[in-house]
Amino acid sequence: MKPLLINLSFLTFTLLLCNCSSHPDFKLKEGDLLFQDVDCGPFCDAIEAVTEGYNNYNFSHVGLVMQDTNGDLKVMEAVSQGVILTPIDSFLSRSSDIHHRPKVIVGRLKSEFTHLIPETIAFIHSKMNAKYDPYFDIDNDKYYCSELIHLAFKAANKNQPIFNETPMTFIAPDTQNTYAIWETYFKELNYTIPEGQPGLNPGGMSCSTHLDIVHKYGEPTKSALE
User: Fold this and answer.
1) DSSP letter string over 82-134?
2) What SUPFAM superfamilies does the entry give (predicted)?
């Protein structure tokens, strides 16, 4: 696999105000979504530039909290290695703000949807070790981070989506030209850029009206779209 593919591990509007400040007693729950501002270079910059996140934060990755076979909480994420479980501390330490706090906020399903969590997690367990989706194709049997979470909740909700698919764009909003990084990336894949095809972005997911933002570990960077 070429270097660009190896390095790609992570691939509107403000919710009602809620208590999302940092709190030392905060505890994660199974089913929580961790929205992360990852500093992975041009890929993350391009992802963040085209979608506003909650409170205009930049998010380029999302994981879901779930138990492993030993009952320990981990973060399920779809990255270049595939669908994996990552220790929470490892996930949180991936990127930090100027105060050395994780650039991560926590979304939690509103009470009327929490009954979906067990079936959602069962769906994800059935996809463990599935391959990463480098094509961002929502209809194949590979998965990128927000795609797998979306499909899992949709399956648990009798095929009704919790998160909305939107047309994907790989075009820079300031120049209206395709980002060079995406041209190179898809050229290496020998694949047509899926401009306008349905997909999901962590930033857009963080704005779902079905979520409450319940905790902020640190301060993600703000979107240039603000």
Assistant:
1) EEEEEEHHHHHTT-B-TTS-B-EEEEEE-GGGGGGHHHHHHHHHTTTTPPB-T
2) Cysteine proteinases
Angle subtended at Cα 120 by Cα 56 and Cα 66, rounded to the nearest 5 degrees: 75
Domain range list for the chain: 3-216
CA-based torsion, 106, 39, 222, 82: positive or negative = negative
pLDDT digits (tens, 9 = 90+) for 15-29: 333 344 456 689 999
Q: Residue 129 above 90 pLDDT?
A: no
> What helix, strand, coil percent values describe the chain, rounded to 5?
30, 20, 50
* C-alpha to C-alpha distances, 224 to 73, 104, 156, 173, nearest whole angstrom: 34, 18, 35, 10
Contact 77, 38 (CB under 8 A): no
Interval 49-72: pLDDT, tens: 888 899 999 999 999 999 998 999
Question: Domain 3-216 has what CATH class?
Answer: alpha beta
Report the distance separating Cα 76 and Cα 85, nearest Å: 4
